[in-house]
Specification:
This protein is an alpha/beta fold. It has 15 helices and 20 strands. Strands 2, 3, 6, 7, 8, 9 and 17 form a seven-stranded mixed β-sheet that branches. A five-stranded antiparallel β-sheet has the order 12-11-15-14-13. A four-stranded mixed β-sheet has the order 18-16-10-20, covered by helices on one side.
Length: about 575
């Protein structure tokens, strides 16, 4: 398994002298909340070079490399807006009420993180939250408002008006109502659409979609941009003064996941191959409640529903959460997920049920329109019937280690959002803190990158870089079958519960896949994605094996107790380049 942690430097061979190229002062890879926030922030800093309207960047041959770079360029793996942010149903935790305080929010976040949060980061994100929300509202974000100044949680009343105070919900792990929402259960969509509109109206920001980032280009000890691929254009290079990774998480490592199909951990894998440090890879959060219909894609059932009074029941109709935690359904996510799994095992059943039949139908339709519509498509009327649910992989607390300025340790390379390990979430993310972190640290990454370029008066230029690959016979591989097998293996061996026996099984299987997948040179995203997934799966398994305790989202049946004496620390991985 050792060589699973030591991948080759680049996935493909190339010669930058022979490739079309683009130039930008700041390259942002990813178009979710963190990436868009970073791009907007970077565009606010005065540029070093003349900028042009950047809505339609075009590739140039080496002979055309004298063109002025765009100020900021966003590249997106799929269509802009196709990401986990757009799918986020939960809200944004932010201190806005006189009955709340930064101190309470900080305390709740640290308790959820179980000893591994960076307190300085937690304080910074939470204290900057209200300002970022105010900016979003200024850009046109329409968050839900309270009815007659009454917040969510009453389970009754007419739909909220378009003005008045923001409605604040209390959700799992939070001691006060502080979670705001947009269009009921479509908060991520509201945030993404607002930021996309701002980006599209900004002439300093260019965008390119359907671009797969293959690898980061590190020359003379610093990141100089990235090697990318486009279905029509093929491979090309983007040279950048600074690069920001905002590529999201890696939920697609698991068979059961709430994540978008793009969440294959590409950013973390690229950064690791380039020499960045990955941290806390064992801490994968499993959302307790996703709609479970055999054969159908898993749809998230937001935690806000439990915040409004939804009850978890086993197959016998018994409410079970009070047996596991004093906060019952509002316990932290790791507790609820583990409790659900235990009930499934006790009752020998594939799922449990979420019960909202005691809440008024009108309230459910106005508060959770997306969930009502999704369940209705499967002939479930949630006002009358129980919702079948089970946990699914949802969020990676670990990722690329960054400092307080979002720097990765590789000069000119920054990271933010789910792909980064900032120290905000520790061993278990508090619900509704991820969009908050994406807004705050995305903004910070963009500003830091742009100011750094300005301070050093850096110039964007091309670099000669040639990488050769040893010719190896490409066996007939069914990439889709390997991918499905990997996802099933990770769910079985590194899911909600882990133990030494299953981790050994995963180690052996990954060693086989490594042997006949990782040394091949593929020419399409399907192969590169699989190589990234196998690499990250190996790191998750290794970290999970090493951490011989249970803490937060990491639960080992063979080491069920938390062990602060030996394990109140982080596990990191770095390739010495």
């Amino acid at each position: 398994m050792d060589d699973v942690i030591l991948p080759r430097r680049y996935l493909v061979g190339f010669d930058t002298n022979q490739l079309p190229e683009l130039f930008t002062e700041v390259l942002v890879i990813g178009s979710g909340v963190a990436g868009l926030s970073a791009a907007l922030s970077a565009s606010e800093v005065a540029g070093l070079l003349p900028t042009k309207t950047a809505s339609a960047p075009s590739l140039h041959s080496r002979a055309g490399s004298g063109v002025h770079p765009t100020k900021v360029l966003i590249v997106s793996k799929n269509k802009l807006g196709e990401n986990n942010t757009m799918r986020a149903q939960g809200g944004i935790a932010v201190v806005l009420s006189p009955g709340d305080s930064f101190r309470y929010h900080i305390k709740d976040t640290l308790e959820a993180g179980q000893g591994l949060c960076d307190q300085k980061v937690v304080k910074e994100v939470i204290r900057n939250g209200p300002g970022r929300i105010k900016e979003l509202i200024g850009l046109g974000a329409n968050f839900d408002r309270a009815v007659n100044s009454v917040p969510y949680g009453t389970g009754q009343g007419p739909p909220p008006p378009e003005d008045g105070p923001l409605a604040l919900a209390k959700e799992g792990g939070h001691s006060r109502p502080r979670v705001i929402h947009g269009r009921g259960d479509s908060t991520g969509m509201v945030v993404e659409e607002t930021l996309l509109e701002a980006v599209e109206g900004n002439t300093n920001i260019g965008t390119m979609d359907h671009c797969f980032a293959i690898d980061l280009l590190v020359v003379e000890g610093a990141c100089r941009g990235a090697l990318l691929w486009h279905k029509q254009k093929g491979r090309f290079v983007v040279w950048a003064g600074d690069t920001i990774l905002a590529t999201g998480g890696c939920g697609q490592l698991y068979r059961e996941t709430t994540n978008s199909v793009v969440a294959t951990g590409d950013g973390a894998a690229m950064a690791y191959r380039a020499g960045a440090t990955l941290r806390d890879m064992e801490f994968v959060q499993f959302h307790p409640t996703t709609l479970y219909i055999a054969g159908a894609a898993r749809a998230l059932i937001t935690e806000a529903m439990r915040g409004e009074g939804a009850i978890l029941r086993n197959k016998w109709g018994e409410r079970f959460m009070p047996r596991y935690h004093p906060m019952a359904e509002l316990a932290p996510r790791d507790v609820v997920s583990q409790s659900i799994l235990h009930e499934m095992q006790l009752t020998d059943h594939t799922h449990v049920y979420l019960d909202v039949t005691h809440l008024p139908r009108e309230f459910l339709v106005s508060r959770f329109p997306n969930i009502c519509s999704t369940c209705k498509s499967f002939h479930i009327d949630i006002s009358k019937e129980l919702i079948p649910v089970r946990p699914s992989a949802h969020y990676m607390m670990g990722g690329i280690r960054v400092d307080a300025r979002t720097r990765t340790g590789i000069p000119h390379l920054y990271a933010c959002g789910e792909t980064a390990s900032t120290g905000m979430h520790g061993a278990n993310r508090l619900g509704s803190n991820s969009l908050l972190e994406g807004l705050v640290y995305g903004h910070k990454a963009g500003r830091e990158a742009s100011l750094s370029l300005k301070r050093r008066r850096g110039k964007v230029r091309p670099y000669p870089l040639e990488v050769s690959m040893e010719a190896k016979r490409l066996r007939m591989l069914d990439l889709e079958d390997i991918r499905d097998s990997l996802k099933s293996l990770m769910w079985r061996c590194a899911g909600v519960e882990r133990d030494g026996k299953h981790l050994k099984e995963a180690t052996d299987a990954l060693a086989q896949w490594w042997e006949y997948v990782m040394d091949k040179e593929f020419h399409t995203p399907e192969g590169w994605e699989l190589q990234n997934m196998i690499l990250l799966a190996g790191l998750v398994i290794r970290a999970t094996q090493d951490r011989k305790e249970s803490r937060g989202a990491h639960y080992r049946k063979d080491y069920p107790q938390r062990d602060d004496r030996h394990w109140k620390r982080h596990i990191t991985f770095t390739v010495d380049r």
